[in-house]
Amino acid sequence: SSIHGKGLNRFWSNIDGYQAPLLMLVAASTSDAHEDNISSRQWVIGVLVQQGFENRDVYYGSPGFIYALHPSFHASGWT
Question: Can you give the C-alpha Rg of the chain in angstroms?
Fold first, then answer.
């Protein structure tokens, strides 16, 4: 939905078996209400993998990168 996004099953069915580099962006937000103060935080993170995703029962894959894009940029090396 426009409020809560799509289900993870839908995402997985669209990428399962894709065997090429994949950039995934995720946007999220939270809000905290303490007494009369309501604060909101938003994040955007990105993940870059070289091998794509495949549904397996064991660990697999090659190194990838994870990025924080918002509110500030930060890149982490191979994960």
Answer: 16
DSSP 8-state code for residue 35: T
Edge-to-edge order in the sheet of strand 37-49: 22-34, 37-49, 64-70, 74-76
Cis bond leading into 21, ω under 30°?
Answer: no
pLDDT in tens, 43-66: 888 888 888 777 778 877 677 778
pTM for the full predicted model: 0.59
What does the domain layout of the chain look like in residue ranges? Answer: 8-76
Q: Pairing between strand 74-76 and 22-34?
A: unpaired
Handedness of CA 42, 24, 54, 7 (dihedral sign): positive
Alpha-carbon span 30 to 43, nearest angstrom: 9
